[in-house]
Amino acid sequence: MHRRHFLKCGLTALAAGSLPRTLMAHPHAVMDHAAPVAATETPALLPAGRLPAGQALLPLPRLRNEATKPGTFSGTLVAEPGSAQLTTDGPATACWRYNQSLPGPLIELEEGMEVSLTFINRLPEPSTIHWHGLPVPADQDGGPDDPVAPGGTRVYRFTLPPGSAGSYWYHPHPHQGVSGQIARGLAGAIIVRAPGDPLAALPEQHWAISDLRLDAQAQIPPHSYGDWVDGREGENVLINGQYRPALALSTTHRVRIWNMCPARYLNLSLPGCEFVPVGSDGGLLEKVLPAQAAILLAPGERMEVLVTGADGHSTLSLLPYNRHPMMSPPPQAALEIATVTYQAAPQPVSEGVALRTIAPLGEPGNLLRAVMMEKMADIMKNKGQTPPRAFLINGKSFDMARVDLTSKAGVVDRWEIINATTMDHPFHIHGGQFQVIERQYLGKKSAPACLAWKDTVNLRPGEIVRLLMRQETPGMRMYHCHIIEHEELGMMGMLKVS
Ligand SMILES: [Cu+2]
After folding, report:
1. Phi, psi at residue 300, to the nearest 5°?
2. Structural domain boundaries of the chain?
3. Which of 57, 121, 210, 320 has its CA 20 to 30 A from that of 17?
4. What is the distance between the alpha carbons of residues 335 and 317, in angstroms, rounded to a whole number?
5. pLDDT at residue 489 above 90?
6. 310: pLDDT confidence band, cut at 50, 70 and 90?
7. CA distance 280 to 186
8. What CATH class does 366-497 carry?
9. In whole numbers, what is the pLDDT of the chain averaged over residues?
10. Domain 72-193 - what CATH class?
11. Neighbours of ion ligand 1 (CB under 5 A)
């Protein structure tokens, strides 16, 4: 699959008249030792059907609150190598986990809470924990500029402000090695709850979706060159760590969905049912949106939906999504990731009903521009063991010693983000939530259906997204592509907030 993607890149370059066909036939002929990451061939993979399927979906384990004082949360996350019995009859899979859980334990918090999370790094390399989307101070956000050494311990502290309820997640964010750490299993979900939540009475179901590549020995292989260029899409898609589980929606549930995959786009479809969007990355939408037959979550994104439909059985599937739209790939089949039994129930909220008040961020006081770029010639030229740092923002590869953009705490930034590459990229900004105000694609401008808080937004090739964001505290913030491999290969920048 990755080779095919890779060859598709080659065809694009060929179409541009820039690439000899012999390079396509011998993609590992050229070496590049400039980048600090290595790549290998994709090994023989675990045959389909070796992971046990059809087991009832289990809730995510919850991180224990060690605090006794009301309004406080104190928890411990230990990242360490271990092994998990994933196949029915094969060897155990060596993996890296938080608290020996795949994915890591769910952290359930409340608005206003004083949070203290102790991270113990028992990995053989530096790591951090980034609280993806949460409004935490820059020095508590586990950025690549703040590594925790192997054997080290770090306590992250923050207080959750009013209005911060939503579905977030946590994952490593070291300067190098982040893609390997996530590919081995390090990620977990966070929920922040609010008083007065209008949907609080609904039962919840949590779909923390991740993917995992397993070789023929059920081990997680190193990244191939195609993984680096395209981002790794593990063949085994897991919900709450389970392969093709059986889901039961016996009444209307509030379903929270996380895309924790490094690169896989989740184009979710449940034939016979529809999804009613009620929440985005940063919590409830302004109002209930019209039901949709399919919903798309780019890597890093979250959604809250109600599921509506007639009684019956169905299959939760990932419809094909072409994130290299200029390359006309052959059609791919939908990928079934769960079975679902569903019982019809009255919808507790109808389309257009207000869910919360979201105040527009208002007039910007600062303009920021980020152009995502790729050096396709380098990608094609350097098809060796080591991938090139060919993914850029504003013409530059990430450099932690360089400030790329500046802002001021309390001032509204207007970001203009431009995807000048040939593939989709999900753009993520650290520090909190933003409001998308406009998209521009194929010459047409459009506004979102309602106000919503987001921290990750997908851009198709040639698309421009304009958004507003207010950084509340000073410090250094990152912005980057959330295809983890692209971030690691340079598609990241630093925003200095003073
Ligand atoms: Cu990207």
Report:
1. 95, -20
2. 72-193, 204-342, 366-497
3. 320
4. 5
5. yes
6. confident
7. 23
8. mainly beta
9. 90
10. mainly beta
11. 425, 481, 483, 486
